[in-house]
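SAMPLE LOG
Freezer: B-3
Tube label: C17
Construct: single chain, 420 aa
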Amino acid sequence: MTTGAPSKPKHIVLTSHPPKSGKPLTPIHWGAPGAQARGPVIGSTTDALARNVIGTHSGSYMLYRALAVAAGALSPMHKPDLTNTAPPDPIGPFAQWADPAKIVSLDPYGHMVGEVFAADLARGLDIRPTIAVTRAHIDMPELREALAAGRLKPDGRIVDATGHVRTTKVAIEPVWYLPGIAERFKISETDLRNGLFEYTGGMFPELVTRPDMKVFLPPIGGTTVYLFGDVKGLGDPKTRIGGRVHDECNGSDVFGSDICTCRPYLAHGLEVAIETAQSGGVGFIVYNRKEGRALGEVTKFLVYNARKRQEGGDQAATYFKRTECVAGVQDMRFQELMPDVLHWLGISRIDRFASMSNMKSEAIERSGIRIVEQVEIPPDLVPADASVEMEAKKAAGYFTGGPAPDAEKLAATKGRGLDG
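STRUCTURE (predicted):
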């Protein structure tokens, strides 16, 4: 690694104050029909006067980039060479992209910047992708077990005889349209901006000094999507859609902890997605970086200790109470934003939704996406040591499978199904 004083970007300015024009030089018209009418998202620091968003790119990794620049390992003037980085499979545009109420937490054109903003890139604007699409294979022992048990069958197209599964992968960085976020949570934009500023220790002063900037690149984890089958079927109402929305649980998803049901949920969701693709539809897994119900892994492990050390040991009756005692709240995942990625995929109906969470299914239905069938995890896939978690969640109002409830029943439901 090289060290030394890095070259300085042009036009260093205090971003807590607006430029003389009082508005960004390249405005963003969120929800406009088409990328050019909407305008590019410019969060680069190479030319501060061209910036039209609060924050900068890379989500939760933005500080690593800043550290690399400070250490002299990365030039602050570096612009990515986007040659041959375009998606191998086209996704969109879909009608939902031009509806400012449907998508407020990601940039629907984030994977297409090299194409739709080619002229802007050619004249020197530093526009960076916030979405990337690639092809890959998945190899999980649970999928090989499903093949051996006959629940999945090799077809040579999606699943081969060894259990390798072909997939299209999508990585998404968060891009928040602040007026839309405020509307989604039924608060004023001013209160949203003040809250984000104050309760991050004043990290982004532009939230309160730049009301002209309506888009924020938050330093949080993003989303990965795994698609199975022909993605050209997305957006076609005749295409069968099936899969799962899964919130990160590193201990279970990666390391196989048996204290919770997250990895079994994930594996079952993959089976549903693959089965849907093999029947001619498109399967999906949406994987959100929201560790420990977005409370974080430190809080999660503190709660584990509190649950195990309380009088009487770990109990279903106090499962959520111990979380609230440590964190002050049971859950911070805010499923209100979760359906955005489904709208980005052009989905208007999910034929099979692998989840026992009413929080997820209700949020999806409220966003205008119909769920035909909600599928629970088979009991034989639940680890024995996860019984406390399962009992607690069922007591909290878990959905128990079958057809999705109608709108009237959804409105009356108070269950909190909190699967991963």
